[in-house]
Amino acid sequence: MRMVVRAATSPRSIEISPSKKFDRSCRDILRAVREPAPSGIMFADGIRLEGLKLLAKHHIAEGIDACVLYAQTQNPWGSEKRIVELMSVLKSYGVHARTVIPQLQELAERFEQGEPGFPKHLSLEKAAVVRDTIRAIETATEQPELIHIN
Known about the structure:
There is one protein chain. With 150 residues, the chain is mostly helical. It is built from six helices and three strands; from the N terminus they run ββααααααβ. The protein has one domain. The protein has helices at residues 20-34, 44-57, 62-73, 79-91, 101-113, 120-138, and strands spanning 3-6, 13-16, 146-148. Helix 2 packs antiparallel against helix 3. The chain starts with a strand and ends with a strand.
């Protein structure tokens, strides 16, 4: 499997051939983040969050959308703490995270409206974290080279 690295400062792509094991591992991690296991749902958030951190550490581009998807669909239990970590992961992508600002704006609005069965004050705190993240992304200057695995 080939992977493409796109530098934010250059319109060209650089093709690299990573080990098949690395590529397979990234795909498995991405799958675990996107699709939590049907059993052990109570602890799925830890696996998903650590997977996102690992994808971000290696600048895997698909981690950006996966992070937003998880923020949108996460279990509300403990989400007021988890959203802080998710937004930290997202900010680590620097300027590349600007592509998801519209989804983040929608997410902040949803939190501001309140979530069914979830304390309103915690939803408002989550909205504030997302809005702070949007501002940080808009002013970001970091441009890590991203690796695309899909």
